[in-house]
Amino acid sequence: MQVLKAQKRHANRLQQEQIIKQRDDLKGLVDSTHDKIDSPNQSKADLENTKADLTAKRDLLLQELNRINQEITNVDNDLSQILSSLEKLEEEKQEQARQAYRLHRSLQPIPGSADDDNREIQEADEIRLRAINVIQNSLLLL
Questions:
Q1: Residue 109 backbone dihedrals phi, psi, to 5 degrees
Q2: Domain range holding 104?
Q3: Are the C-beta atoms of residues 105 and 22 closer than 8 Å to each other?
Q4: CB atoms within 10 A of CB 113
Q5: pLDDT per position as a tens digit, 63-94
Q6: CA gap 41, 27 in Å, rounded
Q7: Helices H / strands E in the chain, number of each
Q8: Would you give the end-to-end CA distance of the chain in angstroms?
Q9: CA distance 39 to 45
Q10: pTM of the predicted protein model
């Protein structure tokens, strides 16, 4: 009975190790996605500054008005694309965080240690081998 319990705990530990690895991998993905979100935020600020500069030039340089208006339109398009990208990345981050949390909640403590369980399994195997040897020797004597 102890051996079966030890084997079950051993299997549970292996499963827990896999869950921990999956959780850690998802945490890494969350961090990576967070970094991806920071980059477009900086680009957004840069593009907004560019728009302000271009608007000021338009007031000073009427002869370049058409060219500058086209650049402003382009910057506005880039800003709208960044906003939709940010929303999508935020959704991905939230889903990854939910998956990591679900995996984290599925972890359960396992009593005892892996070394104790391995030792019990080894002792049981040794007892079985001795029993088999005794049976084989008895059969040879017949």
A1: -70, 145
A2: 2-141
A3: no
A4: 11
A5: 777 777 888 899 999 888 988 899 999 999 99
A6: 21
A7: 3, 0
A8: 33
A9: 10
A10: 0.36
d(CA 133, CA 76): 84
What are the C-alpha distances in Å from 127 to residues 95, 97, 134, 142? Answer: 50, 48, 11, 23
User: Structural domain tally of the chain?
Assistant: 1
More confident residue, 136 or 40: 136
Find the farthest-apart pair of alpha carbons in the chain and give their distance in angstroms, rounded: 115
In this predicted structure, what is the pLDDT of residue 32?
85
For every residue of 22-66, which 3-state class applies, written as one string? HHHHHHHHHHHHHHHHHHHHHHHHHHHHHHHHHHHHHHHCHHHHH
CA separation, residue 140 to residues 82, 131, 133, 134, 136 (Å): 82, 14, 10, 10, 6
Amino acid at 42: Q
**Quick one: tokens of 82?**
């960044």
Write the CATH number for 107.
Answer: 1.10.287
Q: And the tokens for 27? A: 């945490």
Residue type, 142: L
